Amino acid sequence: MTIRLGDRAPDFTQDSTDGRIHFDEWRGDNWAILFSHPADFTPVCTTELGMVAHLKPEFDKRRVKAIGLSVDPVDSHAKWAKDIEETQGTALNFPLLADADRKVAQLYDMLPADAAATATVRSVFVIDAKGVVRLTLTYPAATGRNFNEILRVIDSLQLTDTAKVATPVNWQHGDDVVILPSISNEDADKLFPQGYRQVKPYLRMTKVAN
Ligand code: BEZ
After folding, report:
1. What is the dihedral of CA 92, 14, 121, 51, to 10 degrees?
2. Active site residue 201
3. Start-to-end Cα distance in the chain
4. Which helix (H) or strand (E) holds 208?
5. What are the Cα distances from residue 17, in Å, to 45, 89, 90, 134, 202?
6. Residue 115 banded pLDDT, cuts 50, 70, 90
């Protein structure tokens, strides 16, 4: 099943390093990032899991719960977690799904096209507080992801959900934003009393509170 932006994130129940997870229940009314790894004891994944553990305070600030997935059993994950703690300077502080039966991998279409392949690709799903899929990413096995970029997209999603703006190229939290083209100048005057700069009628820049 292909998962598209705007779809309801499929619910599932699966084992993890934190016990059995009922996904919807586990997420509650938080956002979630669900991301897969090719397999346990692989070098790139070890660094990625360490980075997500380091970034936990940043995910917490945004009400985002992280959950990883690797297609190996819990006892293997538990051994790998020791290596992650030893080599990445932080213990795993979020659950890692033990998807040995590929149930979640198949549900979220995380397996590559090669029918013989058993390892997942590097998929990322950002799911909002209503359980809607807001971002999907697929990276090749040999390329580690940039989790700061994922935080940046979450910042953009959370901002643009509440303000009538969009975020321009390379935007970072605190930078100027663009006013939605569907907003008239008259409405923009009311919505953005701080003012805005009109570069073109369709390109109007403004500041929003951090
Ligand atoms: C890994 O560390 O996950 C990995 C590295 C190279 C190729 C495939 C996977």
Report:
1. -10
2. no
3. 38
4. none
5. 16, 19, 16, 26, 49
6. low
Buried b (16+ CB within 10 A) or exposed e, 79-115: ebbeebeeebebebebbbbbbbeeebbebbebbeeee
> What distance in angstroms lies between residue 39's CA and the mean position of ligand 1's atoms?
8
pLDDT in the model for residue 121: 83
Q: Phi first, then psi: what are they for 91, rounded to 5°?
A: -80, 155
Q: Which of 9, 32, 33, 45 is catalytic?
A: 45
- Cα 141 to averaged position of ligand 1 atoms, centre (Å): 5
Which tens digit of pLDDT belongs to each residue from 45-88? 999 999 999 999 999 999 999 999 999 999 999 999 999 999 99
Average pLDDT of the chain?
95
Nearest Cα to Cα of residue 106 among 4, 210, 10: 10
Amino acid at residue number 61: K
